[in-house]
Write a structure and sequence with these properties.
The complex is a heterodimer.
Chain A: H1 2-5, E1 7-8, E2 12-25, E3 28-39, E4 43-47, H2 54-61, E5 69-76, E6 79-82, H3 88-93, E7 97-99, H4 112-118, H5 121-127, H6 132-135, H7 139-158, H8 174-186, E8 192-196, H9 204-221, E9 224-228, H10 232-238, E10 241-246, E11 249-254, H11 256-261, H12 263-270, H13 280-288
Helix pairs in contact in A: 4-8, 7-8, 9-10
Chain B: H1 2-35, E1 38-43, E2 46-51, H2 53-74, H3 78-98, H4 103-106, H5 112-135, H6 142-173, H7 182-207, H8 216-233, H9 237-256, H10 264-284, H11 286-289, H12 319-323, H13 330-354, H14 358-368, H15 370-375, H16 380-406, H17 416-429, H18 434-450, H19 456-472
Antiparallel strand pairs in B: 1-2
Helix pairs in contact in B: 1-2, 2-3, 2-5, 3-5, 7-13, 7-16, 7-17, 7-18, 8-9, 8-10, 8-16, 9-16, 13-16, 14-16, 17-18
The chains are: A alpha/beta, B mainly alpha.
Chain lengths: 290, 498
């Protein structure tokens, strides 16, 4: 894997390499020959107008779609994986790629704590010897469960939901549900966290908190984050690297500063057809950012 | 001011209400005129029919009036409704109770049961009107009733720590209670069988959320496995029980594989078909299963190898000689009761425990959101197949018990209706609630057995009861879910209701 040693953004290794990714649905080409890479322990963002193919890239990465063409290689500390060859759930189980969803997908009738415990399913399954040991409540399993609760408690404190741990997840306010979904993904102990519009529906204060949470995850947990986002305050505020998609093609790739000044990006966002895509002040932000 | 405005609006309400009541009466007339109005009778070997149109007319008027009564209560005119309904209830109730000269002239219907229904409905209207009048506004008890149901379910759940052991203690001592005669123990055995089936299906439907309409297939597989092993190979019940469970579990996996990708309605249809397939195979594979005649002379259970016999062969023990008591045919009945009780409690304990294990939590997560499960690295195939297999295994256990109790199995015992009843028990009990399922089995199986005297009305009451439960408690009697693990002890912050 000579590619794995190639350095991006200074001294960090490349964690994820996407090459020539193409996804066709019948005659529609949702993603067209997109290549990019994401560095380990960095935050990378995929942005683009609606329908640019961002979520499709995510669905390919996390195994919900099988890409028509392309290679997606993950060079993690625990091994190398070719994601396009893996079953959907194995990407979470073996490659340790976790994701959240654009429309929140919690387990609404289970408690907040249970949501975080379910995320540690595979580890607990091994500890319960595939239920055999667990049925008799042997110490080996209860120890593992205690550890799982401790990890859950750690994340509950981080997202400030400790006192609501026994609520039904579906009863939480919207912003808390978003945070819980991120915490649940983190409880799988991923090496790459994929967030699909984590700031959607959050108010400015909540998205500022989200920024802090994501930076803390990058710095404390030492993992890579890949996010799709429309909220420019989040994207420009925390991303180390930005990939811009438009009509399924990559039109730009670079650090926030260069993206802000990229004429292709400005055209994609402010161009004749798509100028309704962005609220005026965000568009102004983008334009004046230089 | 608001009350004032409502009072002013009231005259406008009345014509609307009248219109709706007449509408309700007409709908009743149309629906019932042919179904109820014409009755086929068998007179002297020839079929003819009688008409009951006056009764239909009375019933339609009654429905219209009842609609009007409820409408008046709801729209803030409870006094009129109270007076009218009270008058009807008292008048008709007293005629029914004490009779009087030419009693039949005063009663709208021939059948006393239907007449009593009129009294009861009038009474309900009167009581709701009284409640509304007491509160001084137009609000009825409906929303409060739902909240009350929830509160009761919640406190039931909270008490289930206590209630469960109490119910178990009652079930264990039941055969020695003074009221326990053979019939009571028989019905209790039947109820316990359905409790066990309900708990088994609850794993598939309540926990894993896989709607299974063919559960009776596994019951059949268990029953036939036991019957064949016991009659053809002479294996004992205790050896056959795990075998039957394993065979049923492998049938569960067999069903599970083709339906992995299906959900909801589609899954229900396929499982329905699977249940029918098993029954048809049992009928048509006659040289193996005995076809429609089934299998006779299935060995009756023994007390761990010691038979229940009045005259055991020379040199052999029998249950009564072993314990030095007089022979009674009830011993076997009571033993069967304890056998199924033990099996049911095993099922209960297993489901209680497995809900707290990763696999149980994964089932519930799968029920809530399969896509999210996949993203968390949970293998949906294995998780679903385990649910099918374990649910089927308990169905197989219950089937073995059924075969040894009846001493005879035939495909007739495993019709779709059985699946529907078991599913109804799970749904009415509240999916996932153990105590709820047990209560629902008592209500759905025990009640009809005890009220056999009511003959035709039994199934009517059954249907009405189901409809009412689904209106008042659409998620089942005790559908309040308790977390399987808590961070804070119970006294901590309580989950708020939306």
């Amino acid at each position: 894997m000579s590619d794995a040693t190639q350095t991006v953004n200074g001294d960090r290794q490349t964690l994820l390499e996407v090459e020539h990714l193409t996804m066709r649905f019948g005659g529609l080409v949702a993603v067209n020959d997109v290549s990019f890479s994401a560095a380990d322990r960095k935050i990378s963002a995929i942005i683009g107008p609606n329908g640019a193919g961002k979520t499709t890239v995510f669905n390919c990465l996390t195994g919900f779609y099988k890409p028509t063409v392309g290679r997606m290689a993950l060079h993690a500390r625990h091994g190398d994986f070719l994601l396009e060859q893996m079953d959907g759930f194995r990407i979470g189980q073996k490659a340790m790629v976790a994701r959240t969803f654009q429309n929140i997908r919690l387990f609404p009738r289970m408690s907040v704590l249970e949501n975080l415990i379910v995320a540690q399913h595979n580890e607990l399954m091994r500890a319960s010897l595939y239920t055999v040991v667990g049925l008799f409540n042997l110490p080996r399993y209860s120890r593992a469960e205690k550890k799982a609760v401790e990890l859950a408690r750690h994340w509950l404190e981080k997202i400030r939901l400790t006192d609501r741990a026994d609520w039904e997840a579906g009863n939480l306010p919207y912003g808390a549900q978003r945070r819980l979904e991120i915490a649940r993904a983190m409880c799988t102990k991923p090496v790459l966290l994929c967030l699909d519009e984590p700031a959607a529906g959050l108010n400015p204060r909540e998205s500022a908190e989200l920024n802090e949470l994501l930076l803390a995850i990058r710095d404390d947990d030492q993992i890579a984050i890949l996010l799709i986002e429309h909220d420019m305050s989040v994207v420009m505020g925390i991303s180390d690297h930005i990939v811009v998609l438009d009509y399924g093609r990559k039109i730009a790739d670079g650090d926030p500063e260069s993206i802000r000044n990229d004429p292709n990006v400005i055209r994609a966002y402010l161009g004749e057809e798509e100028d309704e895509e962005l609220p005026p002040q965000v568009a102004a932000d983008l334009a004046q950012g230089s | 001011m608001v009350a004032r405005a409502e009072a002013l609006a009231k005259p406008l309400v009345i014509p609307t209400l009248l219109k709706q009541s007449v509408g309700a009466a007409l709908i009743t007339l149309v629906l019932t005129s042919l179904i109820v109005g014409i009755k086929t009778v068998d007179t002297n070997e020839a079929l003819s029919f009688i008409t009951r149109f006056p009764s239909v007319a009375w019933a339609s008027i009654g429905v219209g009036l009842a609609y009007l009564g409820f409408g008046l209560v709801r729209s803030g005119l409870p006094l009129a409704a109270l007076i009218a309904s009270l008058a009807v209830a008292v008048a008709q109730g007293s005629v029914l109770l004490w009779g009087g000269p030419a009693k039949e002239l005063y009663l709208p219907f021939e059948d006393p049961v239907v007449n009593w229904v009129v009294v009861i409905v009038a009474g309900i209207i009167a009581s709701r009107a009284a409640v509304a009048l007491h509160r001084g506004d137009g609000t009825t008890a409906a929303p409060a009733g739902t909240a009350l149901g929830d509160r009761i379910a919640r406190s039931f759940n909270r008490a289930s720590r206590l209630l469960g052991p109490l119910l178990i203690a009652f079930a264990v001592t039941m055969p020695f209670m003074p009221f326990a005669n053979r019939r009571v123990v028989d019905v209790a055995t039947l109820v316990a069988t359905y409790v066990m089936l309900g708990w088994g299906l609850n794993i598939v439907v309540g926990l894993a959320g896989l709607l299974d309409l063919g559960y009776v297939a596994f019951y059949a597989v268990g029953a036939y496995s036991y019957s064949m092993f016991a009659t053809y190979m002479g294996l004992s019940f205790w050896l056959c029980l795990p075998l039957a469970g394993m065979i049923a579990a492998s049938f569960g996996v067999l069903l599970g594989f083709p339906v992995l990708r299906l959900r909801g309605d589609y899954l229900a249809i396929v499982t329905l078909g699977f249940g029918e397939m098993v029954r048809l195979i049992l009928i048509n594979w006659w040289w193996f299963t005995g076809g429609p005649n089934g299998i006779n002379n299935v060995p009756r259970p023994s007390f761990f190898g010691i038979p229940f016999e009045r005259n055991p062969p020379e040199g052999h023990w029998s249950f009564n000689t072993l314990f030095g008591i007089a022979y009674s045919s009830n011993h076997r009945v009571v033993f069967l009761y304890y056998l199924i009780l033990g099996l049911a409690l095993l099922t209960c304990l297993f489901s209680y425990r497995i809900r707290r294990l990763p696999i149980g939590r994964a089932w519930e997560a799968l029920r809530e959101d399969e896509t999210a499960c996949r993203a968390l690295g949970i293998n949906p195939t294995n998780t679903k197949l385990t649910a099918f297999a374990i649910g089927a295994m308990f169905g197989g256990f219950a089937g073995s018990f059924f075969a040894t109790r009846q001493g005879f199995v035939s495909p007739e015992s495993f019709t779709f209706l059985e699946s529907a009843v078991i599913l109804a028990i799970v749904v009415l009990g509240g999916m996932g609630s153990q105590v709820g399922v047990a209560l629902a089995a008592v209500v759905l199986i025990g009640m009809p057995e005890f009220f056999r005297e009511l003959a035709g009305y039994r199934m009517l009451a059954f249907g009405i009861g189901m409809v009412l439960i689904m209106i008042w408690r659409p998620r089942g009697l005790l559908a309040v879910r308790d977390p399987t693990i808590r961070l804070h002890p119970r006294a901590g912050p309580e989950p708020a209701k939306p």
